[in-house]
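If I may wish for something, please sit down with the protein I am sending here and say whether tokens and residues agree:
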Amino acid sequence: MFAAEHPSRSSRPLPPSTGLHVSGGTVVEGNGSRFVMRGVSHSYAWHKDQNQAFADVKRLGANTVRVVLTNGTGAGEVADVIARCRTNRLICVLEYHDTTGHGEQRDAVTLDAAADYWTGLRDVLAGQEDYVVVNLGNEPYGNGDTSGWAGATKAAVRKLRDAGLRHLIMVDGPNWGQDWSGVMRGNAASVLDSDPRHNVVFSVHMYGVYGTASKVTDYFDAFRDAGLPLVVGEFGWKHTDGDVDEDTIMREARSRGIGYLGWSWSGNSGGVEYLDLATGFDPDRLTEWGRQLFDGPDGIRATSKEATVYRDRPAVA
């Protein structure tokens, strides 16, 4: 159940904020300015020769890029990705993809393994709190037993904090990110409270489960009523599991100040090529989905605001 007021959370003294952080149920920058993510995912780990993507999505109006990483993406590459984000004045959501569909997808790893990946990047991530969000693990549970999601998420967040990582952490829901079982929705408050830095934002992926306006608004309402931070970490315009009400997602996200990140820039395969926003990584050849996301009435161009950190200081130190 969600309550309208949470005095225990609002009155609890919080650790000093560094960089992007959660305040009052929303994501803000280090200077307290509200930051609403507007951007796309870029499948860097599978398309490492497509680094022009950072500049291209920025030119189209994005303020954020979510970058796919895998266990084979080393510290030097991650440092380069962060530098590219900063050069192009983008907030960089670094996403570890190897957890996708754990328990259902063969070879998917645990959130504990994801935490080990992030702690191994501690020296690269340190000092980047103004620019980097750590997306703990992509879609970390499939549609099987999701009862371990809350405990595994809490333990992984704690491992990052014990290693000295102070960043805003984005956590994905189970059920391939769509959280149709309500496990993330029902446990989000306890996950946030378990973080000693109180600095976690929750990410729902909206595909076929969210094919009606009521499905979208009910989910958004639950987090609003609970005073908990939420982003739409992935969404499309249609998918193999059904149509998506992307118009409501974008309209309601705009009116509520919820961030959204469309999947994905380009390079999809295996029958989901329809999720490409650009044909062949070409920003001048946007697909129907790309035109809707970037140029629609509630799309990126109309609603994106650059992070103030890039106005307050040079993009690259």
Q: What stands out?
A: Residues 149-162 form the longest helix (14 residues). The two ends are 45 Å apart (CA to CA). The longest strand covers residues 200-206. Residues 14-312 form a domain with the TIM Barrel fold (CATH 3.20.20.80).
